[in-house]
Amino acid sequence: MEKPNDLILVIFGASGDLTSRKLIPALYSLSNQNLMPEKFALLGVGRSEISSTEFREKMANAIRTFSDEKDPDFSHITGFTEYFEYQRIDYISPPDYKELGRVIQNLCQKHGIGGNIIFYMATPPSLYETISTNLAEAGLGIQSDGFKHFIIEKPFGYDLESARRLNKTLHGLVQEDQIFRIDHYLGKETVQNLLVTRFANGIFEPLWNRNYVHRIEITSAESIGVEDRGGYYDGSGALRDMVQNHLLQMVGLTAMEPPSSLEADAIRNEVLKVFQSLQPIKEEDVEKQVIRGQYTPSKIRGECVTGYRYEKDVDVHSRTETYVAMKFFIDNWRWGGVPFYIRTGKRLPTRVTEVVIHFKQTPHHLFKRVVGKLTGNQLIIRIQPDEGILLKFDMKEPGAGFNVKNVNMDFHYKDLADVRVPSAYERLLYDVMLGDSTLFSRDDEVETAWKFIEPIQRAWKNNPAIKVYGYPAGTWGPEPSNDLIEGEGLTWRYPCKNMADEELYCEL
Ligand code: BG6
Q1: pTM surpassing 0.70?
Q2: Residues with Cβ within 8 Å of residue 79, at least 6 apart in sequence
Q3: Cα–Cα distance for residue pair 346/128, rounded to 1 Å
Q4: In CA terms, which of 92, 93, 264, 389 is 20 to 30 Å from 421?
Q5: Ligand 1 midpoint to CA 505 (Å)
Q6: Is the Cβ–Cβ distance between 486 and 339 less than 8 Å?
Q7: What is the reported pLDDT for 302?
Q8: Mean of the pLDDT values across residues 418-431?
Q9: What is the pLDDT of residue 8?
């Protein structure tokens, strides 16, 4: 694989969680695979008053603690962190950015690196505009001596208006192709595999439309609560935190038309068209099409679990949703009339993300008299855990008569013993170094996704009578979300940790 050109990576928010848990271990894995530039230096920037030596030690510990490799080789850690430096900054002080410019220049000279620089904003989103503006005003966005890439993390704004403002500010400073907006779901191997499953196989694509698909279901469930992120989460909620970005991106890749090539814009144009075709949910329909919930105290496997309102930094009267389930349509030729159901929540029974394609029943139920109800065919694309693909179909039970049984045909990534699935951040960092923006959200995608979300936000704001349903922590969310699914006897799939299993109650 291609090695990126020499560069300096500047991480703002260097003493934060994202840097230690995700970014540094991902860079180390890339280095172990010989996928880092020949000449590379990392400058950590933050408010903390720490020395470069302390920073190197902290990052070395982060690699040991958070590496997700099966048999990590830690023998190169010292050699790897040797190129790390730390610089303290006051984010709102322009002179500090001038000083930063000097430090970067010295680093370039010291390591013989040209002018390629990546600025990663691993900070709270409220700082993105401040940091970018100060960087640009200090002349650090100019690409005359090499590329200058700006990475920002979701959330990109907190509504349509703020997203537009953020894009406008960034466009006033740098070009769109210098901006890399990270939605880490796009970095997941299995999310990218949605494209391969659809467009590399002749057998699925002909069925992938309203003639054969009955409904599509996308679930992203988490078993954890808000942990120590109550302060952030209470102002965000599941709609902003998961639906506007991760879930809609999965909808985009599931529903898009075949792109003309694998070029970044060819793929992103098709995702954008899906977002543009999302049938707007009218404010007055929000109550019946979008169900929100919040987890309440409960016992999970004998242990008491706190309710959302009693989590650290959460308002005791909070109406922030920790669960969202919704139904919507995509108004285009491929999907007209096919309902899409998506749901996400915290403190659900298990951690699972998957896309389920429910195919239509056969036109004539030849075996109905024998089995009563046929389950139908489902294709399940498991994003995590137990990554893989499962096809469910009906088969004759051996013996007299025509007893029909729904059976599984499955592929699990873990069966490819010699293949390591890289982490999302590994893939995304590598792509930014190469300047490949395929797996990053473009400005118009982000704004169009917000446009779809906006009436829901407005309805919830203007109409407090729309219920926030409680659901006991550890269950599959509020009851009314079951009523979203149209059709007699139809329900959500209740997935288990093992892809092939489904039950309302299963292993954790
Ligand atoms: C983040 C959200 O973007 O995604 C978190 O802010 C959520 O609230 C996380 O827990 C889920 O990511 P993953 O990769 O664990 O599914």
Answers
A1: yes
A2: none
A3: 27
A4: 264
A5: 23
A6: yes
A7: 85
A8: 89
A9: 97
Q: How far is 243 from 18, CA to CA, in rounded Å?
A: 21
Quickly state the pLDDT bin for 367 (edges 50, 70, 90): confident
pLDDT in tens, 126-161: 999 999 999 999 999 999 899 999 999 999 999 999
Ligand 1 binding residues, C-beta < 6 A: 222, 241, 353
Phi then psi for residue 42, to 5 deg, are -125, 130
Q: Of all atoms in ligand 1, which is nearest to the CA of residue 245?
A: 3
For the segment 118-130, what is each residue's pLDDT rounded down to a tens digit? Answer: 999 999 999 999 9
Cα distances from 61 to residues 78, 120, 289, in angstroms, run 11, 21, 47
Q: What one-character-per-residue DSSP string does 204-257 give?
A: TGGGSSTTTEEEEEEEEE-SS--TT-HHHHHTTHHIIIIIIIIIHHHHHHHHPP
Residue 275 identity (one-letter amino acid): F
Q: Which tokens belong to 316?
A: 């005791």
Helix (H, G, I), strand (E, B) or coil at 263: coil
Q: What is the CB neighbour count within 10 angstroms for residue 398?
A: 7
Radius of gyration of the chain (CA): 24
Residues in contact with 33: Cβ distance below 8 Å, sequence separation at least 6, in sequence order: none
What size, in residues, is the chain? 508
In this structure, the residue with its CA closest to atom 2 of ligand 1 is 241
Q: Is the pLDDT of residue 71 over 80?
A: no
Ligand 1 atom closest to 384 (CA): 16
pLDDT bracket for residue 452 (50, 70, 90): very high
Determine the Cα–Cα distance for residues 26 and 13; give it in Å rounded to an integer: 16
Flag whether pLDDT at 507 surpasses 90. Answer: no
Atom of ligand 1 nearest to the CA of 226: 8
pLDDT higher than threshold 90 for residue 72: no
Q: Which of 86, 93, 103 is nearest to 140 (CA)?
A: 103
Contact 305, 299 (CB under 8 A): yes
Q: Whose CA is nearest to atom 10 of ligand 1?
A: 222
Q: Mapping DSSP to helix (H, G, I), strand (E, B) and coil, where does residue 433 land?
A: helix
Structure letter (DSSP) for residue 203: T
* 68, pLDDT greater than 90: no
The tokens for 476 are 């599959």
Q: What's residue 498's pLDDT?
A: 80
Mean pLDDT of the chain: 93
- Single-letter amino acid code for the residue at 137: E
Active site residue ranges: 246
In the β-sheet with 352-359, what is the strand arrangement from edge to edge? Answer: 404-412, 388-396, 378-384, 352-359, 213-221, 340-345, 323-328, 290-296, 468-472
Residue type, 425: Y
Pocket test for ligand 1, best of 156, 183, 222 (most atoms within 8 A of CB): 222
Q: Are 8 and 42 in contact (CB under 8 A)?
A: yes
